[in-house]
Design brief:
By secondary structure, this protein is α+β, with helices and mostly antiparallel strands. The strands form three sheets. Strands 5-6-7 form a three-stranded antiparallel sheet, with helices on one face.
Length: 142
C-alpha cells in the first residue's frame, strides 16, 4: 500500500487556488496508480467493499495539519478513506470501465483563515457523485 503525505496549506502559499492545483496533481497521480492496480486485478470495486462493510468514510486523524493521499490497497487495508482517497479510487474505477469521469475539488471558507476542501466525482453525464456520502460521511464510523 502507498501513502503520500503532503503539507499543501493555503496559508503557506497564500493562494487557495495553488493549493487546489497541487492537490489535483497528487490526486491524479493516485488515480493513475489505482488504475494500474485495477488492471492487475489487485483491487475490488469500491462500492462492493462498502456493501460488505469493509470500507467506510472517515476523516484522517491529522486532518487540517497535513493531507495524506492513500492508494486503494491502503484504503482496503485500513478499512476507511477520506474524500480524496475514495474519489481517487472511484475515478480510477470509472476510467477503467471507459467512462471519462473526473475529480471535482472545491473549497469553501469556514473561518477567516480556514478553508475546507472536499473532493467529489464528476461523471461523464455531468452529474456529481460523492463517494464519501455513499461510504458513510455524516455518520460516526470509527
Amino acid at each position: 500500500p502507498m501513502k503520500i503525505v503532503v503539507d499543501i496549506d493555503h496559508r503557506v502559499t497564500g493562494d487557495p487556488r495553488l493549493t487546489m492545483l497541487c492537490a489535483r496533481a497528487y490526486l491524479y497521480g493516485q488515480v493513475a496508480h489505482n488504475r494500474l492496480l485495477m488492471r492487475l486485478n489487485r483491487v475490488p470495486r469500491l462500492y462492493e467493499l462498502r456493501r460488505q462493510g469493509l470500507v467506510e468514510f472517515d476523516q484522517e486523524p491529522n486532518a487540517g495539519k497535513y493531507e495524506e493521499f492513500a492508494s486503494a490497497p491502503l484504503v482496503i487495508e485500513r478499512g476507511w478513506g477520506d474524500c480524496d482517497d475514495l474519489c481517487a479510487y472511484r475515478v480510477a474505477e470509472l476510467l477503467e470501465t471507459g467512462e471519462p469521469a473526473r475529480l471535482r475539488i472545491y473549497c469553501k471558507e469556514v473561518a477567516d483563515d480556514m478553508k475546507l476542501y472536499h473532493v467529489q466525482v464528476r461523471r461523464a453525464d455531468g452529474t456529481i457523485e460523492d463517494p464519501s456520502r455513499i461510504c458513510g460521511m455524516g455518520r460516526n464510523v470509527r
